[in-house]
Amino acid sequence: MSKAYNETVALSQSGALAALRAAVEKAQEMGVPQCIFIVDPSGETIASLRMDGAKYLSMHTARAKARTAASIRNATGSMTPEFAVAAGIASNGGVTNLPGGLPIRFGGKLAGAIGVGSGTGDQDIEVGRAALAAIEADPI
């Protein structure tokens, strides 16, 4: 029997675009251009954008943040340093402990994750939270 922990719901393309739009608006308000990735529960990309002026290498980290948050079903940034290094090496950089990855949940069920990169960790989280609020996802 599967546990409720494994239950997922789908994030529609309109929901992903609304989250992306809200993230961009928040980043613009903050004056911090960002790279933003939204993924489904399996870590596959639904929507992404590199804002004008965002660091181009942050596309990789934003995607890794989103995929990691979906995989661990939790926000990034709380792994032990030893585990974070090992996971990063084992996944060829596909897993990261950098802050800015947030799971997207509705009613406790995983719908995907958002990864934001190019600002400070706190800025990335703030942009991600604005995206979650716009689609009325469970708050992080």
Automatic annotation (TrEMBL):
Transmembrane segments: none
Pfam families for the chain: HbpS-like
Gene3D superfamilies hit by this protein: Haem-degrading domain (3.30.450.150)
InterPro entries to which the protein is assigned, alphabetical: GlcG_carb_metab_protein (IPR052517), PduO/GlcC-like (IPR005624), PduO/GlcC-like_sf (IPR038084)
Residue ranges the record marks as coiled coil: none
Domain of life: Bacteria
PANTHER family: PROTEIN GLCG, SLR1406 PROTEIN
Protein name per Swiss-Prot or TrEMBL: Heme-binding protein
Organism field: Rhizobium vallis
